[in-house]
Amino acid sequence: MAKAKPKPTTQSPKRVIYPGTFDPITNGHVDMIKRSLEAFDEVIVLVAHSLKKKPVFDAKVRKKLIEDCFKNDSRVRVEIYDGLLADYARKHNIHAVLRGLRVVSDFEYEFQMATMNRKMNPNLQTFFLMASDNFFFVNSTLVKEVFSHGGSVKDLVPPHVEKKMREVLC
Ligand code: COA
Description:
The protein has about 170 residues and is α/β, with parallel strands linked by helices. The protein is built from six helices and five strands.
C-alpha cells in the first residue's frame, strides 16, 4: 500500500522582533541576528526609542546601516519605531522578542524588561540568546568611545559602519 503523503504545513512563519537602539549596529548585533535565523523565519530589527539614550546617529541612518548588513537576505526587515514594543508586537501579531545576553549584569535589566513587556502584552515571549565569545564585551557606546580616541574598530563593526562613523564622528 502506498504511503500517505505528508500533509502540507500551513504554519505561519515564525517571526521575532529584535529591538534596540543600534547606535550603531555592531558585529555583535549582526551575529545575534544571523544566529536567530536558525530558529526563526523572519527577524524584524526594530530601531526603537529608549528614554535613557541620546543616539549619535539619526534613526534613518541607523536603519540604513542595518539594512546594508543584510542586503541579500529578505528574512531580515528593519523598521523605525518610537512607541511601546508591546504595542508593536500586538499590532503586527508577533509573539516573540529577541534579546542578547552578554554578561551576567545584563540579566537583571533584561529580566525587568521581559517581565514588563509580558505584563503589557501577555502573548509576548522574550527569547534570550547568549552572545558569541568574540562579542560578549562589545556594545555601541564602547565602539564609539574606542573609535573617537583613534582606536581600531575593524573587528567590531562592519566596514560600511566604520565608514559612516568616520563621516559622522571625525
Ligand atoms: N552585541 C553587541 N552589543 C550589544 C548586544 C550584542 N549582542 N546586545 C546588546 N548590546 C549593546 C547595545 O549596543 C547597547 O549598547 P549601548 O548601551 O552602548 O547603546 C546595550 O548593549 C544594550 O542597551 P540597552 O539599553 O539594554 O538596550 P538597547 O539600547 O539595545 O534597547 C530598547 C533598549 C530599545 C529595546 C528598549 O528601550 C525598548 O524596548 N524601547 C521601546 C519602548 C518600550 O517598549 N519601552 C518599555 C520597555 S519594558
